[in-house]
Amino acid sequence: MNVNCNRLGIENIYAVNRDGIQLLDYYDVDESELDRFQPLSSAYAVIFVKDKLLLGFNKYRKQWEAAAGKIEAGETPRCAAIRELYEENHQRAGQLAFKGVFRIFDPKHQEIRYRSVFWGTLDALEPFHCTNVDEMERILLWDFKSDIGYVDAVDIKMIEMINLQAEL
What we know:
Layout: E1 15-16, E2 22-27, E3 40-49, E4 52-58, E5 63-65, E6 67-70, H1 77-89, E7 96-106, E8 111-122, E9 136-142, H2 153-167
Parallel strand pairs: 3-8
Antiparallel strand pairs: 1-2, 2-7, 3-4, 3-6, 4-5, 4-9, 7-8
């Protein structure tokens, strides 16, 4: 069952992915303001090599997605983004810039959560060797045009919204 958060009085839904996760808002805030957003459940590492986006193919969800994951107890969102980038894509981040917070609605758990997003560039990719414990089975650099199959719609919309904000 896909529950729409409009029933909760929320008007904007910018994107919905295959799991029903709904992207509601983008907050262009300073990293020092992260405590305002609770629960801050995950951190993203959006990485570009030249003008191409690094994506991993999630073998469980059968989709392409940006490196992201849960913020562990005692871990900062920035450290979580760096860790997730390495765990999921086997890449080491150089400098990551904080780009803001996104509010999402998870219909499965009937809850609003927040995602922190960090942005970076790499000169080149390190080798990726998939093991049986990896969540991602392969990675690629995507030009936003090539048909690679399903790319998580919420991830793509978050990246588009950050790019739009940067152009203002």
